[in-house]
Inverse folding.
């Protein structure tokens, strides 16, 4: 916006702040495109941008009686617009954080979809592959394969060995599948 | 697409509400003062009516435009001295001495009017501001002087109007001759 138009907007705002209602149409004509363009830069959704710009315009009109004439009019309007845009973005973010209501949520399908079945099969196949790399003792400790007769180990020792076997399984898994 | 006409209506409504909100700030000063005046008055009903008129006039003028805001500010400031003098005279029990009351009220009215005349000249106010501020000042001052009687109230008002007009006219002519 050039300096002359900027001064014209400030003058119109000052006149409106003084109670000169005839300046309203000037403010509307000059300010509305500026406000809309400013809001569109930050709010991507077109309908949202128009709503926010309208809110900004109404706020400007409502607070104009308190407008300090020593300040630049356009800077004052931009400050209000920036605050409104921030409020809108914060509201959007909050809306995304709130989980949908139970009645709004889609009911869970009791039968798994073909895609779910395919993923499950793939995971089982890769797990079997990783387990194949382990020793028989490790597989037994993890509860897969044949259990040997009583080994005479205490509960703590079995837990420790199982932990080590899990560590080895993890290492094999990362070596095979990254 | 934004409906410009609807937006215009909404914005105008918001503008008028904003002006009303701004003008109602005067209530913070006026309401406690008129309440005290009404409670101290010997004729609380008349005082309450005057208080309502003062509040309505102040709100309406401030809502109207900047000149109205100016007029209310000056009117309330200049009406303060006659109001306080009248209340003091009543509270000190001087109401039985009409000569003292009249002379004191005339002095207070003259001083307040002179200040108003000076302010009107300094701010280069027009006739509307003069009329509006004098009305506010006199109704505001009447909140205290109403208990002293109509004669004293009218004397105060006359002194106020004459001195404010005289000072404003004298200062105006002095400025024109200097230029």
């Amino acid at each position: 916006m050039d300096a002359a138009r900027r001064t014209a907007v400030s003058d119109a705002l000052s006149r409106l702040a003084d109670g000169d209602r005839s300046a309203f149409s000037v403010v509307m004509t000059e300010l509305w495109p500026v406000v809309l363009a400013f809001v569109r830069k930050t709010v991507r959704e077109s309908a949202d941008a128009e709503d926010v710009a309208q809110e900004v315009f109404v706020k400007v009109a409502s607070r104009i009686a308190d407008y300090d004439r020593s300040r630049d009019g356009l800077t004052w309007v931009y400050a209000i617009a920036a605050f409104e845009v921030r409020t809108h973005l914060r509201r959007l973010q909050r809306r995304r954080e709130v989980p949908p209501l139970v009645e709004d949520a889609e009911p869970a399908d009791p039968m798994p979809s073909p895609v779910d079945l395919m993923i499950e099969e793939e995971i089982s196949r890769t797990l079997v592959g990783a387990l194949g790399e382990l020793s028989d003792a490790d597989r037994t400790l993890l509860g897969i394969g044949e259990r040997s007769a009583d080994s005479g180990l205490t509960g703590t020792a079995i837990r420790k060995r199982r932990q080590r076997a899990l560590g080895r399984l993890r290492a094999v898994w990362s070596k095979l599948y990254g | 697409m934004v409906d410009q006409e609807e937006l215009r209506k909404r914005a105008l409504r918001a503008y008028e509400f904003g002006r009303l909100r701004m003008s109602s700030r005067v209530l913070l000063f006026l309401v406690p003062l008129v309440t005290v005046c009404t409670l101290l008055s010997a004729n609380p009903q008349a005082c309450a009516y005057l208080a309502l008129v003062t509040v309505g006039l102040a709100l309406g003028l401030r809502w109207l435009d900047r000149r109205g805001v100016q007029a209310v500010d000056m009117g309330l400031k200049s009406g303060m001295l006659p109001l306080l003098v009248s209340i003091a005279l009543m509270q000190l029990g001087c109401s039985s001495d009409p000569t003292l009351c009249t002379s004191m009220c005339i002095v207070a009215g003259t001083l307040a009017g002179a200040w108003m005349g000076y302010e009107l000249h300094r701010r280069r106010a027009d006739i509307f501001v003069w009329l509006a501020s004098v009305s506010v000042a006199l109704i505001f001052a009447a909140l205290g002087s109403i208990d002293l009687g109509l004669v004293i109230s009218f004397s105060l008002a006359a002194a106020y109007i004459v001195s404010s007009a005289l000072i404003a006219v004298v200062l105006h002519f002095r400025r024109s001759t200097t230029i």
User: Anything to note?
Assistant: Chain B has one domain: 4-178. The CA atoms of residues 27 and 55 of chain B lie 7 Å apart. Chain B has a mean pLDDT of 89. Helices of chain B lie at 4-23, 27-40, 44-64, 66-91, 98-122, 127-145, 150-178.
